[in-house]
Amino acid sequence: MDITVAVDAMGGDHGTHVTVPAVLRFLDQHPDVNVVLVGLPDAIEAELKAQRRQCGPRLRIHAASEVVTMDEAPQSALKNKKDSSMRVAINLVKSGEANACVSAGNTGALMATARFVLKTISGIERPAIAKMMPTRKGGETCVLDLGANVDCTAEHLMHFAIMGASLFAAVKDRSHPAVGLLNVGEEEMKGNGLVREAGELLRASQLNFVGNVEGDDLYSGEVDVVVCDGFTGNVALKTSEGLAKMLSDFLREEFFRNWWTRALAGLAWPVIGRFKKRVDPRRYNGASLLGLNGIVVKSHGGADSVAFYWALKQAVEEARAGVIQRIAEQVHHQLAVKTPLINAE
Amino acid sequence: MDITVAVDAMGGDHGTHVTVPAVLRFLDQHPDVNVVLVGLPDAIEAELKAQRRQCGPRLRIHAASEVVTMDEAPQSALKNKKDSSMRVAINLVKSGEANACVSAGNTGALMATARFVLKTISGIERPAIAKMMPTRKGGETCVLDLGANVDCTAEHLMHFAIMGASLFAAVKDRSHPAVGLLNVGEEEMKGNGLVREAGELLRASQLNFVGNVEGDDLYSGEVDVVVCDGFTGNVALKTSEGLAKMLSDFLREEFFRNWWTRALAGLAWPVIGRFKKRVDPRRYNGASLLGLNGIVVKSHGGADSVAFYWALKQAVEEARAGVIQRIAEQVHHQLAVKTPLINAE
User: Fold this and answer.
1) Which residues, by range, are in coiled-coil regions (chains A, B) (predicted)?
2) Average pLDDT for chain B
3) pLDDT band at B341, cuts 50/70/90?
């Protein structure tokens, strides 16, 4: 099946300078993918020209006259920028012209706009932000929510579990993924009121709920999905970024200490390079806004074109795996929602 | 000033096999420190003999007939094991025979027992667990609470801030340490209800409150103290442990891939060794139970003797810096508590 991705070409700290090169490389490597670049035509054309490329049957430009800035308030973007590249890209998903959209723009504005345009899946109150993280076992673990919902109820966590399990099952082709609830200990009575209540709901659910997990299980590979409120998830994610940055700084400092260590670094470069590649955060750049009637993938605002490429990949994989349909079915099945499934006519 | 430390010799996964060698090395390197080894005399004597050492003016044994197990319920330990090595070590702090105590035992039991025996400092409702973490700038940041209080009020976070700032000021000899509130964004309106309310209290306080910080600031060195509820802090700490373990596994795998990478690892060993030493978690092993009328330092249960050594160091530094007095003064000053200061007569 050919997949069409709408790309907010203007989003992120570097706009078209990052999005356009990433799209071009992605198209070269994925012959069954089409891309619609959404944004200011002049800026997009200029970048295409700089890359000595042009539009064609698999790459077209869709004009949008406005750009949401990185620090704009979500409600202001939603109200005042109806022709923003972000909004128009999401509109293309809504209208069915695209199977998914990708933006490196302002997270709050993207979530507010996507929610307004696409609406949530029947039965889901709150969309969540989910991300695959690398694990010690070599696989990946899906973690959510990473910051969309800082105040959650136990029901919200239950919904996140259903959505995360559906995403993992669809994209990784795994039936009954193992779901863990992020807590401060493994015993059932551990944790604050929210997680104890969520634990009860999850134990009573039809999910493959394996119980409480702790922070180190984000990277242990013991579970496929880790569920948490958006406050905790955001802190865990950013703590990881901070630690990784510190370790990387220290390693570089030690290898650049003097001529001898620099020589060693040169010799060991292939080894260090392979290590860096395995844990390169750019490979885990695509965060999914789950719970909407359409695929929306958020790239880090500061992403370079390699990182943006991986966000495109995440969007295409979700579209190909029919993630929205899977989530809607699971929500319907697990929550027994009595409303028609989307795309089910 | 000579410092006497009471050591729960039986605590932790390895008991005397770890605590006794750590104490012996610590005494050799710190001539103004005395240690009381608390526990089963036979086990302690056996380990001393194995180390070809004996008691003397700076090292004595204080018998305790019971041992709190690592999975024992805190209330059961408190109620049924009144002659445990953990409890007797804390009693020695209470009676003034020791200036601080260190235990690698069960955290819940240690907190419950310490709280029961020592009581909290006037004005403090909930003791917290604090730890120094390494930072990119080369210094340290004190983070609390790391798990003692999974449900907190804004007032508790305010108390943690006062305690953390007092600890940092005392041990690092820094006046007005910069305090940050762990949140999901820097803007004042960010976060859940708890942190928004705590932010207001902190802004109105006399602390050097610099505002919200994010997860990566645990390692950025931008602030001296990071305050959070125990649920979030515990997740952040364990997430860090999990990520560090994954990265260390991956680095080892790459360097042990074949004979050539092994040879490189051999050559680069001094460089890698220096890197590992800088981030060795054993150097950050001592967690402080703050808010009690006495110094209690918790070592990781699985600590080896190097890690336990660092917990002893933390306890001695706190005793030398008069941390309890500092906290009591600051609580009194900042919360205007109208009760007599401890040790102030």
Assistant:
1) none
2) 93
3) very low
Asked whether residue A328 is assigned to any structural domain, the reply reads no
Contact A328, A343 (CB under 8 A): yes
Measured CA to CA in angstroms, residue B11 lies from B5, B286, B300, B304 at distances of 15, 14, 10, 12
Residues B202, B308, single domain; the answer is: no
CATH of the domain at B104: 3.40.718.10
Lowest mean pLDDT segment, chosen from A79-83, A84-88, A204-208, B265-269: B265-269
How far is residue A21's CA from residue A19's CA, in Å, rounded to a whole number? Answer: 6
pLDDT, one tens digit per residue, over B233-247 is: 999 999 999 999 999
pLDDT score for A337: 53
Interface test with A, best of B135, B229, B271 (most A CBs within 10 A): B271
Same domain membership, residue B296 and residue B227: no
Domain limits for position A276: 128-281
In a domain, A286, yes or no: no
Total domain count for chain A? 2
Task: Tell me how far apart the alpha carbons of residues B202 and B180 are, in angstroms, rounded to a whole number.
Answer: 9
Per-residue pLDDT of A176-186, as tens digits, reads: 999 999 999 88
For the cut 70, the answer to whether the pLDDT of residue A238 exceeds it is yes
Residue of B nearest to A151 (CA): B192
Strands B140-144 and B225-227: parallel
B167 and B83 housed in the same domain: no
* Chain A positions in Cβ-Cβ contact with residue B231 (cut-off 8 Å): 184, 191-192, 195, 232
- Placement of tokens 């022709």 in the chain: A83
Per-residue CA distances from A142 to A104, A170, A222, A225, B201 (Å): 20, 12, 12, 5, 36
Judging contacts by C-beta atoms under 8 Å, the chain A residues touching residue B254 are: 271-272, 274-275, 278
- For every residue of B221-253, DSSP letters joined together read -S-SEEE--HHHHHHHHHHHHHHHHHHHHHHHH
For β-strands B208-213 and B140-144, DSSP reports them as: unpaired
Predicted local distance difference test score (pLDDT) of residue B77: 93
Closest-CA distance, B116 to chain A, in angstroms, reads 21
Structure tokens at A169: 């099952």
In tens, the pLDDT along A273-326 reads 888 888 888 999 999 999 999 999 999 999 999 999 999 999 999 999 999 999
* CA distance linking residue B81 with residue B87, whole number of Å: 8
Token digits of residue A30 = 């994925």
